[in-house]
Amino acid sequence: MFKPARKTSIRVLSKGYYYVEFTLLEDLGVEPRPLQFVNIWIPGVDEVPMSISQYTGSSLYVLFKVVGEGTRNLRDQSGFFGVKGPLGNGLVISEYSKVLFIAGGTGIAPLPLLAKHAESSGVELDVVWGVKESSELFNVKSIAPSVRSVYYATEDCLVGYCGKAPDLAERVLEERNWNYDLVVSVGPKNMLLDVCKRVGGQIETLVSLEAIVKCGLGACGSCTLKPLPRLLCVDGPVFRCNEVIKHLEWCVHN
């Protein structure tokens, strides 16, 4: 069931990236876990799945890049929207001590809530963020001030490391003698596959997937992770690499 929410602020983070606050007229009912998501109903358009970037009880924040009609209307429309969630399994970060978060593009979206839970649990959290164009970058600590270290990679080679996030992440892991007990990665499927192949056999590695989500309850089948008999909305979006490696390979090669 959707709960009413009013869009109360929008912040431009960088080229195409936005941070939106919704004031909730009703509490979500449960405290979201990091990497859970919500479906946001945009009047006259459709509903779109969005990572929960931050949650305070009365406010919900989402971070996104404008890539199509849904996100364009999410940026441009004002007034009231509908929020359904939190959905998915999420992550209990308190079970770990040192975590490396690897994000590609809008995969940076769930970081603020992840960092909040890491700080409250005494977990050290480092971040590797890669983007194609340096104009997309913004100061990660402006949305997640408690993270320990942030490493930037750009494919246009104008800022930070020249290359992709998995390349930089592997260098960070080597410099720190692989001294992490968890790697979490969010981003494009080809990047997640690369991370799983490079890191998954050495450190526990979790990936958060994206798919078209409609009902959010596992009934409609729109978020089936082909060719696996799994549904993102009820089985995910967080999976161990060995659980979804076949899905990632299928997506990259089809």
What's the total count of β strands?
14
Number of helices: 6
Rg on CA atoms, Å? 17 Å
In the predicted model, the low-confidence regions spanning at least 5 consecutive residues are none
Tell me the series of helices and strands, N- to C-terminal. EEEEEEHEEHEEEHEHEHEH
Share of β-strand residues: 25-35%
- Based on Cα principal axes, name the global outline: globular
State the fourth-level CATH superfamily of the largest domain: Nucleotide-binding domain of ferredoxin-NADP reductase (FNR) module
Structural class: alpha/beta
Oligomer: single chain
Examine the coordinates and then state which fold CATH places here, giving the name of the CATH topology of the largest domain.
Rossmann fold
The total domain count is: 2
Percent of residues in helical segments? 10-25%
In whole angstroms, the N-to-C terminal distance is: 35 Å
CATH architecture verdict of the largest domain: 3-Layer(aba) Sandwich
Q: In what order do the strands lie side by side in the largest sheet?
A: 4-3-7-1-2-6-5
Overall CATH class of the largest domain = Alpha Beta
Tell me the major beta sheet. Answer: 7 strands, antiparallel
Output mean pLDDT. 93
List the main descriptive attributes of the protein structure presented here.
254 residues, alpha/beta, Elongation Factor Tu (Ef-tu), domain 3, Rossmann fold, 7-stranded antiparallel β-sheet, 7-stranded mixed β-sheet, 6 helices, 14 strands, globular
